[in-house]
Design a protein that fits this description.
The chain is an alpha/beta fold and 260 residues long. The chain contains ten helices and ten strands. The protein is 47% helix and 17% strand.
């Protein structure tokens, strides 16, 4: 499938999605959100893909926010629909994807861009990256999960400060806050993400999908995360990956997971 605003490439078991609107600093518009949903959905169905890396084109921005021109004149009802649809088809969709997604933050990650990075399973940043949620400077608040995921990742107080000041933090601050897992140079960003992706792909994709769901369950108020973990743990025992993993361990050899 061809896309207008993104580029999707694959190398062995690792896929890389590049948001490709450099003249707009890769800002998210309706078309980009739709194309991202489609490519994530297609990659999720491809059992040969074990890890997805998400990044932005160029050297300035991961995603510098949403395309404000698309919704500046929206009514309250339209604003709610915008948030509901965006969360459903992209942000919540990515967070609950069973295939691990690594955000490679190669520059500005602002507003919807930071919200998209936070929806990924973890984040790696280049040392020139800047992150923030500037929505209150526009008379709005984050609408794609930012008020929920940011406190989960960095704590309530720091999240409140970032949201209320509408300011940006440096990559070094993001690392110290726990917002990103690793910090590296722009040249080494994708190689580091690929190295991490390769380490992930060596493990059971079935077990990883259960782990993603179990971790996410712990952040849902109506779900007992411990009970979810117990059920998922038990379910692993019925998989071919578990049989192969335990056999390989006992036989002192490298596991060759079938992915089922």
């Amino acid at each position: 499938m061809s896309y207008n605003t993104i580029i999707s490439t694959q190398e062995h078991s690792i896929a890389t999605i590049t948001i490709n609107r450099p003249n707009k600093l890769n800002a998210l518009n309706k078309e980009t959100i739709g194309e991202l949903h489609n490519v994530f959905s297609d990659l999720e169905k491809n059992k040969n893909i074990k890890v997805i890396i998400l990044t932005g084109s160029g050297e300035k921005a991961f995603v510098a926010g949403a395309d404000i021109s698309e919704f500046a004149q929206f009514s309250e009802k339209q604003g709610r629909k915008l948030a509901v649809k965006g969360q459903k088809i992209l942000f919540d969709f990515v967070e609950n994807l069973s295939t691990p997604v690594i955000a490679a933050i190669n520059g500005f990650a602002l507003g919807g861009g930071l919200e998209l990075a936070m929806a990924c399973h973890f984040r790696v940043a280049s040392d020139n990256a800047k992150m923030g949620l500037p929505e209150v400077s526009l008379g709005a608040i984050p609408g794609y999960g930012g008020t929920q995921r940011l406190p989960q990742l960095i704590g309530k107080g720091r999240a409140m400060e970032m949201i209320m000041t509408a300011g940006m933090i440096s990559a070094e601050q993001a690392l110290s806050y726990g917002l990103v897992n690793h910090l590296t140079s722009q040249e080494e960003l994708l190689p580091l993400c690929s190295k991490l992706a390769q380490r992930i792909s060596n493990n059971s994709s079935v077990a990883i999908s259960y782990a993603i769901k179990a971790v996410n369950a712990g952040f849902i108020n109506t779900v007992n995360g411990y009970e979810h973990e117990i059920k998922a743990f038990g379910a692993c025992f019925g998989t071919d990956d578990f049989a192969e993993g335990t056999s390989a361990f006992l036989e002192k050899r490298k596991a060759n997971f079938p992915g089922s």
